[in-house]
Design a protein that fits this description.
8 helices; 74% helix; elongated
């Protein structure tokens, strides 16, 4: 595997893409189904992954690492536009996977991981001293769910507006409401 890194990376990526295509169709992505879709045999799959759970876990970890890196902003730079810009940048890189992971055939554990990563920033942005912990937690959940769902829908719609337009739309909704 180490002798041809480009081929190795391409084979691994083909297996991952096959897994996600099957998942997007709402079917169970078994090793057999993945290898058949990818055009490889089971032995090839096992050179890269122990099972489909490991494949999924590796992709989720890669995405989470990218999110953590993108969302590591100095506290002075934490604002809704910067957060939304970071989220959209990740969607540009991992959008196909994210739209599946966060969509109807997705992984609820992954949604929870995403919210947990974004939570500290949401807490800092949307919590005031005059709010109860319950009110703050509910507002944070609302914002996190709404932003993730909106960006997911934007991607599913094949990005019908620009990234900057999406950022402005989300910011306007956060600041002024949806009406």
């Amino acid at each position: 595997m180490k002798k041809q890194p480009e081929l190795t990376a391409m084979t691994r990526q083909t297996l991952i893409d096959a897994f996600f295509h099957i998942t997007a169709e709402g079917k169970k992505a078994t090793v057999g189904a993945v290898t058949e879709r990818a055009g490889y045999n089971r032995c090839t799959f096992y050179r890269y992954f122990v099972d489909t759970e490991q494949l999924l876990s590796e992709v989720e970890t890669e995405i989470c690492d990218a999110f953590e890196k993108a969302l590591t902003l100095p506290s002075s730079a934490i604002s809704p536009p910067e957060i939304i810009s970071s989220l959209v940048g990740i969607y540009q890189q991992y959008g196909d996977y994210l739209s599946i992971l966060l969509g109807e055939h997705g992984d609820t554990r992954f949604v929870s991981k995403m919210k947990a990563m974004i939570h500290p920033m949401a807490h800092q942005l949307f919590t005031t001293n005059s709010q109860s912990n319950i009110a703050a937690a509910l507002k944070e959940e609302f914002v996190l769910s709404a932003v993730l769902a909106t960006v997911t829908k934007w991607y599913e719609m094949k990005q019908p507006i620009s990234i900057s337009e999406l950022g402005r739309l989300v910011m306007n909704i956060l600041q002024y409401g949806i009406l």
